[in-house]
Amino acid sequence: MEQQIKQEILQLYKQLKEEDNQKENRLEKWRNLEPESAEFISIIIRTQQSKNVLELGTSNGFSTLWFADALNNSKGKLTSIEIEEHRTELARNYLTNFKLIDNVELLTMDAKDFLVQATPIYDIIFLDAERKHYVEYWIYLKKLLNKKGSLLIVDNVISHQNDVKEFVALIGNDKDYIVSTANIGAGILLVTKQ
Question: Where would one find coiled-coil regions in this protein (predicted)?
């Protein structure tokens, strides 16, 4: 990522974090991915030369900016799913302003509805949605991890350990998958098929 763009995106993060600090209701907050986590995932995208990335939980598009920039290198495509229309539109505005919209498809829909019909074309799947649904998502995520080398990345596995405990155990008990937790940002779970 170019240094100037990175500084502008980090300034945006600071502004959004300040907005979050003024809100009491968790669901009204932006709940953005931490910059160190976003940068880590963007490095994986670049290293892997990803062609197709799926993001479940766009929010306002902060993480989407990082992923889209990383995908410019490989001419890859990002599909990002958000259930709230106003958040999708805000993400579209940020991506347009940063000139990163060209390789991004933003969809406003329920993540489960998308997963039910999705096909296993994704190199990376980033999961940062409502954690209470993760267990029911697993059957569909497994189907998408059938592409050789596919990687599932889940945010908040340290900061919200209790919320994802059942989901992490479910994956850990599945002998077909290798699981590792990276102590970056709020904690990132990395999952790939054996």
Answer: 2-33
pTM (two decimals):
0.95
For the domain with range 3-193, which CATH number is right: 1.10.274.10, 3.40.50.150, 1.10.10.10, 3.10.290.10? 3.40.50.150
Whole-angstrom distance, CA of residue 150 vs CA of residue 48: 10
Q: What tens digit of pLDDT does each residue of 36-90 get?
A: 999 999 999 999 999 999 999 999 999 999 999 999 989 999 999 999 999 999 9
Cβ neighbors of 86 (< 8 A, separation 6 or more) are none
* Helix 85-97 and helix 62-74, axial crossing angle in degrees, nearest 10: 50
Which of 99, 36, 31, 15 minimizes the C-alpha distance to 65?
Answer: 99
